[in-house]
Amino acid sequence: MEPAEIATQDPEGFEAVFRHTPAVHRYPGSMAGRVQTLAAAVRDEWGGDAAAIWTQGSPDGAEVLKRLKALPGFGEQKAKIFLALLGKQYGFDGAGWREAAGDYGQPGHRSVADITSPESLAKVREFKREQKAAAKAAKSR
Could you check whether the bond before residue 11 is cis, i.e. omega within 30 degrees of 0? Predict the structure, then answer.
């Protein structure tokens, strides 16, 4: 489905699609509305072409991060993870993308940006467990 089509779906009907088993998200009701809001932004601000966010005008990493953060539902962390995903898996090579993506742009298995297989998913989960354990240990000192 194209962003314009998603944006104009009947909200109740669109939510019902999100609730079909397996559900698209663990909170299908709120996520359906968020997806429609994001689709409307892509339609209205990027001519319906999501790729224009990282291709229009040959932007560098900092500009793409700025564009992502301007999207509804994208805060700092989600924008950085998405920028890392673009760089690591979709060939985005704008100058400074790794720096703009912060830790998520570094090599390794840190986030969803690094998941390409069941094995890489396990590595990301292990990295997250290690990070939580380290934070808990630092807090208890």
Answer: no
Collapse the DSSP code of 34 into the 3-class scheme (helix H, G, I; strand E, B; otherwise coil) and give the result: helix
Name the residue range of residue 14's domain.
3-102
**What was the pLDDT predicted at 51?**
97
What is the C-alpha radius of gyration for the chain, rounded to an integer number of angstroms?
Answer: 17
State pTM to two decimals. 0.88
* Distance separating alpha carbons of residues 115 and 110, to the nearest angstrom: 9
Task: Evaluate whether residue 33 is within a structural domain.
Answer: yes
The span from the CA of 141 to the CA of 134, in Å, is: 11
CA 8 from centroid of its chain's CA atoms: 22
Residue with tokens 């690591």: 88
